[in-house]
Amino acid sequence: MPLSTRPAYAADPARTRGRCLQEPAAPTRSEFQRDRDRIIHSTAFRRLVYKTQVFLNHEGDLFRTRLTHSLEVAQLGRSIARSLGLDEDLVEAVALAHDLGHTPFGHAGQDVLDDCMREHGGFEHNLQSLRVVDKLEQRYPDFDGLNLCFETREGILKHCSRRNAELLEATEPGGVAMRFLQGGQPSLEAQLCNVADEVAYNAHDVDDGVRSGLIELEQLLDVDLVREHWRAALDAHPQLAGKRLLFETIRRMLSAQVYDIIDATRAALAEAVPTDADAVRRCDKPLLRFSADMRSKSTALKRFLFANLYRHAQVQATRARAEQVLRDLFTAYADDASQMPPDFADRPDRHRACADYIAGMTDRFAIREHQRLTGKNVF
């Protein structure tokens, strides 16, 4: 959107709070475009193609991975941002980077590493995403990480425990962790990525869950959000059945949620009348939101998926094997750091180095490493 028509509440790349290490401006790209490009070219971003969303990569070629999930979040985010006049490039950058710190094997990996690191500072996958872009990427001669803008880093840090926020604030006073200590919100672009993330994973987990055979479309008809759009799809196309009916139901669900977010956010903005992006940050609750009715429907769908998909016996059995792989890897590396590459083995903070190394693995590399170190093939 041209600067002359940019809403006051939108993030402005020309007025960014800047980078930790100042750099000359790029001649052909805005600062947020530059961040997006750095993320896309990062090693961590490429690894997302072989990291689990719900189903392991080798369980089927068409199941979502962390990469395809991130792309779907970016697509939804840009569509909504365009309607609200927000900075699309910042939304895309945050969306593409928000899962860079996710472990192999999805949330199972997060839980194992947090347990293994209990006496050494713990592990949060969201904080790890910030750690990736701030420290762990090694692409540039003058700095570690990607040296991203404050606004992009702010959006990446979606959650943060108070303890970790205090540690971040000590090294970066008034930085990306301050809102977790003093209250307040991130930019609207960051808020949008949070909501787009929820919309994306609810929709694609319905798709992947049915595709896998672990849940049936008929089961989903107990969920209001699914049932109303399934009925609308059949009203418009009475002969529709099978996967086309599923796809049309999901398409209608996505559209309804997107339009709801746009309308609810416009109403919230009209009430709050933020004068600039910092006024958005000073609000006591997010302005980028669902309506109350859609929030209730989305929450009900999440509860259904948790009970019937994420806690399905088959998913849990895979999770147990994944937990064994990562726990064995952590123990092996902590006992003998020379089993890791020198960049990790030579670090003085051995346990954090183990967590960083394991968190960066793809599913298939973790399985191969486990087999190399233990002689076992648990999958």
Q: What string gives the helices and strands in order?
A: HHHHHHHHHHHHHHHHHHH
What is the percentage of strand-forming residues?
under 5%
- Largest sheet entry: none
Fraction of residues in helix: 55-70%
Pick out the low-confidence regions: none
What distance lies between the first and last C-alpha atoms, to the nearest angstrom?
Answer: 49 Å
Structural class: mainly alpha
Summed over residues and divided by their number, the pLDDT gives a mean of: 93
Question: Number of helix segments?
Answer: 19
What is the global morphology? globular
Q: What would you call the quaternary organization?
A: single chain
Q: What's the β-strand tally?
A: 0
Cα-atom radius of gyration: 21 Å
Summarize the structure in words.
Helix content is 62%, strand content 0%. The mean pLDDT is 93. Helix 3 crosses helix 13, helix 12 (224-236) crosses helix 13 and helix 16 crosses helix 19. With 379 residues, it is mainly alpha-helical. It is globular. It has helices at 31-40, 43-47, 66-84, 88-97, 107-116, 125-136, 150-156, 162-171, 178-182, 188-212, 217-220, 224-236, 242-272, 277-281, 292-310, 313-335, 342-345, 350-359, 363-374. The protein is built from 19 helices and no strands. It has a domain at 188-205 and 215-309. It comes from Pelomonas parva. Pfam families: HD, HD_assoc. Keywords: Hydrolase.
Q: What keyword list fits this structure?
A:
single chain, 379 residues, mainly alpha, 19 helices, 62% helix, globular, dGTPase, PHydrolase_assoc_dom, dNTPase_2, Deoxyguanosinetriphosphate triphosphohydrolase-like protein, hydrolase
